[in-house]
Amino acid sequence: MKRFAAVSTICALFLFAGAISAFAQDEHQEKKEEVRQEEKHDQHVEEKRADEHAARRISDEHFRAHFGREHHFAVGRVAVVNGERRFAYGGYNFVFAQPWPAGWAYTDDCYIDYVDGGYFLFNVRHPGVRIALTVAP
Asked: What angle do CA 92, 97, 99 make, to 5 degrees?
């Protein structure tokens, strides 16, 4: 009788350990699925943000009147909105798509030009260096 009780206890422990292992695997799988869903959501938000920025374009008339080499300005104040560094000029908000270059000052004479299908910030004091910009919604 004692052997039967011992064998029954051992079997019950194995079954219990198996059930715990299966439960832990299910819980781990659920967490992985939640992470995947969060990653998909984050990716969707980033793609939507990129699409919104890419879709914004300044009309040719407005661009000629306020932008280009002949229209200098100082960037001045940079704001951070939703984790993006941006500034306002000419009735538009621009988001920096690249870091601010070393040696540039926010008080330097700059201009925005449209080159190769995109907007760029140029610094008059640092020819040959440019910062990619996107037009914020």
From this structure: 115
Short-list 87, 108, 106, CA closest to 96:
87
DSSP calls for 7-22? HHHHHHHHHHHHHHHH
At residue 51, the pLDDT reads 53
Per residue in 62-76, pLDDT tens?
Answer: 999 999 999 999 999
Q: What's the CA gap between 40 and 43, in Å, rounded?
A: 5
pTM: 0.60
Classify 76 in phi/psi space as left (phi over 0), alpha (psi -120 to 50) or beta.
left
Query: What pairs with residue 92 in β-bridges?
Result: 89
Q: E strands of the chain, at which residues?
A: 79-81, 84-89, 92-96, 110-115, 118-123, 130-135
